[in-house]
C-alpha cells in the first residue's frame, strides 16, 4: 500500500503504524550500510595503511624500500583516519 493510498484511508492509526514500520526498515537499512562502510574502511586502512593511502598520500610507499617488516606489522587506526565513517552521526565509529 503506497503512502498516497494510506492518506486517503480514514484510519490514522493504520497510517501511523505503516509509517513507523517504514521508518524502522529505513533505520535498519541505514545501520547495515554504515556497518559495511565501517568494515570496508577498516579493511582499506589496515591493508595499505603502512605505506600510504588515498587520504594521506603514498610517501610511505616510496620510502619503504625493500624493508617488508613494516608490511606485516598491524597499525593502530586513528579516529581522524575514518573520514567516511565519521561523516555520519549514527556511524558505528562514533
Task: Supply database-style keywords.
single chain, 4 helices, coiled coil, transcription, 94 residues, Chromatin modification-related protein MEAF6, rod-shaped, Eaf6, chromatin regulator
Description:
The protein has 94 residues and is an all-alpha fold. The protein has one domain (3-87). The protein contains four helices and no strands. The chain is rod-shaped, with a radius of gyration of 22 Å. The mean pLDDT is 80. Residues 16-43 form a coiled coil. Pfam families: NuA4 (PF09340). One of its GO terms (biological process) is chromatin organization. Keywords: Chromatin regulator, Coiled coil, Nucleus, Transcription, Transcription regulation.
How many structural units, i.e. domains?
A: 1
The backbone outline, from C-alpha atoms, is: rod-shaped
The main sheet comes to: none
For the secondary structure, the number of strands is 0
Kindly name the structural category.
Answer: mainly alpha
Low-confidence parts, pLDDT < 50 over ≥5 residues?
Answer: none
Distance between the termini: 36 Å
Number of helices: 4
Helix-strand pattern, N to C? HHHH
Roughly how many Å is the radius of gyration? 22 Å
Mean pLDDT: 80
Strand content: under 5%
Helix content: 55-70%
> In oligomeric terms, what are we looking at?
single chain
Question: Secondary structure elements and their pairing?
Answer:
Layout (H helix, E strand, L loop, with lengths): L2 H6 L3 H37 L10 H5 L5 H4 L22
Short description:
This protein is mostly helical.
Amino acid at each position: 500500500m503506497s503512502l498516497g493510498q494510506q492518506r486517503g484511508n480514514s484510519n490514522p492509526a493504520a497510517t501511523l503504524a505503516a509509517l513507523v514500520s517504514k521508518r524502522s526498515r529505513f533505520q535498519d537499512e541505514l545501520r547495515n550500510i554504515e556497518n559495511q562502510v565501517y568494515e570496508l574502511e577498516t579493511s582499506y586502512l589496515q591493508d595499505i595503511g603502512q605505506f600510504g593511502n588515498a587520504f594521506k598520500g603514498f610517501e610511505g610507499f616510496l620510502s619503504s624500500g625493500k624493508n617488508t617488516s613494516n608490511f606485516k606489522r598491524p597499525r593502530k587506526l586513528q579516529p581522524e583516519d575514518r573520514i567516511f565513517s565519521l561523516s555520519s552521526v549514527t556511524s558505528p565509529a562514533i
